[in-house]
Amino acid sequence: MAKVIKFPIHTPEKFGFKPVRRRKSTGIPKPGQLNLFTGGKLVKLNQLSTFEEALLMDEQGDKKAKALYKKAIAENDAKADAYCNLGILESEEKNYSKAIDCFTKSLKEEPRHFEAHYNLANLYAEIGNFPLAKIHYEISIEIEPDFPNSHFNLGLTLAMNKEIENAILSLMNYRRLAAPEEKGHADDLISTLTRTITN
Fold first, then answer.
1. pLDDT score of 10
2. For the ranges 20-34, 51-65, 81-95, 97-111, which has the lowest average pLDDT?
3. 3-class DSSP state for residue 1?
4. How far is CA 57 from CA 3, 62, 147, in A?
5. Which residues have C-beta within 8 Å of that of residue 20, sequence separation ≥ 6?
6. What pLDDT does 164 receive?
7. Contacts of 132 (CB under 8 A, 6+ apart)
8. Core-most of 6, 149, 156, 181, by most CB within 10 Å?
């Protein structure tokens, strides 16, 4: 007869979405883009771009941020970042299909956009689509392997997918990267998952 192993009722919360913050220009021109101003002098005008203004509003919890992200997209101002942050706002309002649309449009603009992959994975995990969540967490880890929350969330997703050994490995990676005060949840989960294997 099969032995049923019950998981503890208390399930830890996964880490939340990761909004895009101000990005510094790398100075490297985009492929196929001519630089017509190589000898030009930059003059700073203490004026925020539409994306930066939207980000400030978003950080303050102002509802105007949504409209400003849309305006930034229309102006081609940090388009991938604006789509990503707009996706978070849509997700917070439980507009999941719109949020997925925003994250995928962010990825269309920039296929290796870390925050878009990470946030899309969080959204898929939230709605219970663990196979897609797994893929996007894995991609986010490929892009930024030292971001601990991706490893923790992947571990939770793998556990929900009943891939216990891989879940433990992912949580161990999280422990390796996380600050000492943040390792407690992972230790508890590793202990619980290990007991399910040995029983």
1. 45
2. 20-34
3. coil
4. 53, 5, 26
5. 55, 78, 81, 84, 85, 115
6. 96
7. 120, 121, 124
8. 156
